[in-house]
């Protein structure tokens, strides 16, 4: 155990005390309702939450993930059929290939983590899906190359799973196919392919915007179910499984940034035109566009609230006098290494914090690039203790979510910096 004797430790200064007590909050009710209506979220949520296999514990997480992937297939066809000569079609295809690959990797990880209990096993069959859009992509002249690439990716990424997706991949191992059509419900999903304004807004970017955000919201729903599962597993002492889930959550935060970055490929004038047509406008500097997604706000709050599980992980109670009880327990855990699954979990929690803050920082810069910094109204930072900044900036300027872990690592870092690698004392 590390001894603090005669060791001077420099604890990091606290960041600025920003004026808004809760920077993560939804936009106005009217703005959120308009966002939900545009994306047909009530109907989409019904598809995410309609579970056809109640004994299959993975379905609440895997189902919306597969639906996000299927909506991505729709976006690929939308790009492939876009008749505008001036769009950056080559980069669109590259980005969508990367996006599909990222999602397939996440889907494969979710499938790999399934329990071995046969009573809660995934529903499988011996036949391919007949409703997915991927076979059409793989045979369409404008999208054939990316379609075949995706099929190869599925074959490769699902190699450690007990089954494969059944979307036309080679399946050289002869594994059973997931009952994809029953789980994903692609027929009902593609019934939502048109947004409420598609019949009177003649702008191709309208469909792009709509589809991108449906993918985004589907993964947000996956994350909310994952976060609930993390809390449950920590309460049950299943720290290794909880660790796997928090690293999945970190990857989803990064995926959300990847999805949002697709906006930069939209034609600037067409995008700003559809923004006007849809009457998308920020009403104040604390009305970041992303906060119109109630799901994203909830995901951010729940990600932050993971810090409340640290005492349970460290098996100590918070010192009501403000003493360093949690810090000392964390230092002991890091030093002894006899409960490494807890270390993995705590590291994963901090990775989620980092990924979430990077998402909001990147989003701020993306909005400025797409709409101009004046419209985005999100480039202000606090230059003194008396100034305020917009709510989006405050999210990634918040103090560390895990001050006890931060202090423990600061102490250990100072210890090794001062004493060198002379062994533990």
From TrEMBL:
GO terms for biological process: defense response; L-tryptophan catabolic process to kynurenine. InterPro entries: Hs1pro-1_C, HSPRO1/HSPRO2, HSPRO1_N, Trp/Indoleamine_2_3_dOase-like. This is Nematode resistance protein-like HSPRO2. GO terms for molecular function: heme binding; metal ion binding. It comes from Arabis alpina (Alpine rock-cress). Transmembrane segments: none annotated. Residues 158-418 form the Hs1pro-1 C-terminal domain. Residues 6-155 form the Nematode resistance protein-like HSPRO1 N-terminal domain.
């Amino acid at each position: 155990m590390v001894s603090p004797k005669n060791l001077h430790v420099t604890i990091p200064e606290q960041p600025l005390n920003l004026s808004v007590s809760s920077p993560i909050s939804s936009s106005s009710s009217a703005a959120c309702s308009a966002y939900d209506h545009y994306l047909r979220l009530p109907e989409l949520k019904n598809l995410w939450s309609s579970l056809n296999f109640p004994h299959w514990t993975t379905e609440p997480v895997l189902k919306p993930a597969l639906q996000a992937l299927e909506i991505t297939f729709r976006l690929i066809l939308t790009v492939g059929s876009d008749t505008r000569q001036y769009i950056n079609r080559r980069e669109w295809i590259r980005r969508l290939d990367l996006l599909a690959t990222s999602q397939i990797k996440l889907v494969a990880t979710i499938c790999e983590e399934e329990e071995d209990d046969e009573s809660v096993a995934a529903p499988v069959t011996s036949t391919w899906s007949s409703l997915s859009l991927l076979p059409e992509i793989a045979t369409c002249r404008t999208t054939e190359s990316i379609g075949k690439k995706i099929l190869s990716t599925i074959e490769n990424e699902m190699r450690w799973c007990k089954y494969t997706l059944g979307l036309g991949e080679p399946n050289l191992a002869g594994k059973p196919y997931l009952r994809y059509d029953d789980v994903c419900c692609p027929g009902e999903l593609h019934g939502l392919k048109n947004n409420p304004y598609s019949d009177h807004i003649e702008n191709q970017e309208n469909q792009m915007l709509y589809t991108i955000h449906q993918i985004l919201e589907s993964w947000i729903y996956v994350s909310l179910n994952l976060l609930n599962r993390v809390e449950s597993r920590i309460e049950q002492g299943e720290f290794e499984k909880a660790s796997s889930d928090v690293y999945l959550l970190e990857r989803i935060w990064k995926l959300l940034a990847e999805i949002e970055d697709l906006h930069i490929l939209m034609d600037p004038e067409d995008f700003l035109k559809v923004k006007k047509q849809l009457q998308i406008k920020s009403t104040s500097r604390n009305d970041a566009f992303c906060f119109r997604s109630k799901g994203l706000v909830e995901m951010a709050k729940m990600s932050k609230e993971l810090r409340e599980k640290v005492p349970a992980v460290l098996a100590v109670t918070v010192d009501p006098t403000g003493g360093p009880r949690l810090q000392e327990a964390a230092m002991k855990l890091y030093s002894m290494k006899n409960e490494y699954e807890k270390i993995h979990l705590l590291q994963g929690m901090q990775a989620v914090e980092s990924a979430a803050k990077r998402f909001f920082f990147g989003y701020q810069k993306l909005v400025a690039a797409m709409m101009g910094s004046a419209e985005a109204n999100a480039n202000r930072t606090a230059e003194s203790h008396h100034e305020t900044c917009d709510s989006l900036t405050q999210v990634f300027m918040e103090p560390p979510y895990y001050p006890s872990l931060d202090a423990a690592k600061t102490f250990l870092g100072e210890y090794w910096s001062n004493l060198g690698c002379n062994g533990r004392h």
